[in-house]
Design brief:
This protein is an alpha/beta fold. It has helices spanning about 1-25, 40-50, 85-90, 110-115, 130-135; strands at about 35, 55, 65, 80, 95-100, 105-110, 130. It is built from 5 helices and 7 strands; from the N terminus they run αβαβββαββαβα. A 7-stranded mixed beta sheet has the order 2-1-3-4-5-6-7. Helix 4 links the parallel strand 6 and strand 7. It starts with a helix and ends with a helix.
Length: about 140
């Protein structure tokens, strides 16, 4: 049983590292302020406690936004990543989606929306950048 709990801890830590690096690379800030909309309290607590991410009380004060479970239109006024494919369909200006499938992380960044927010990422992200028109609608 101990092995299972260690595996969960490892995958959670891995996700926290991925999200932290993504936010700091996009914002260019060491301690970015992030607004969470629809994200579980547990995930927010983990991100704030174990990364350099700081919570923003409202979207206007945020450098970055994470959304999840958005079943209606979401207007992204700050760089926004959806944490599920339902939300990305309802956020026309999301810069990407981060999710899990079959125990593996999936990161897709949308070229058009990165350009709209004037975001230039390090070359290591080139394999994750796609056109949104080919991605939305897929599961």
């Amino acid at each position: 049983m101990k092995g299972v709990s260690q595996e969960i801890d490892r995958s959670v830590k891995y996700e926290m590292k991925i999200l932290e690096k993504l936010v700091t690379d996009i914002t260019g800030k060491r301690y970015p302020r992030v607004y969470f909309d629809g994200v579980s309290r547990q995930k927010v607590t983990l991100l704030v406690r174990f990364t350099t991410i700081k919570p923003a009380q409202d979207i206007q004060k945020a450098d970055f936004v994470f959304i999840k479970n958005k079943t209606s239109k979401f207007n992204a006024i700050k760089p926004t990543i959806a944490l599920d494919f339902v939300s990305v369909k309802n956020c026309s200006l999301c810069i990407g989606v981060f999710s899990w499938r079959n125990g593996r992380p999936i990161l897709i960044l949308f070229r058009e929306n990165l350009q709209k927010f004037n975001i230039i990422l390090p070359k290591e992200y080139k394999y994750y950048i796609e056109s949104k028109k080919y991605i939305v609608g897929k599961k």
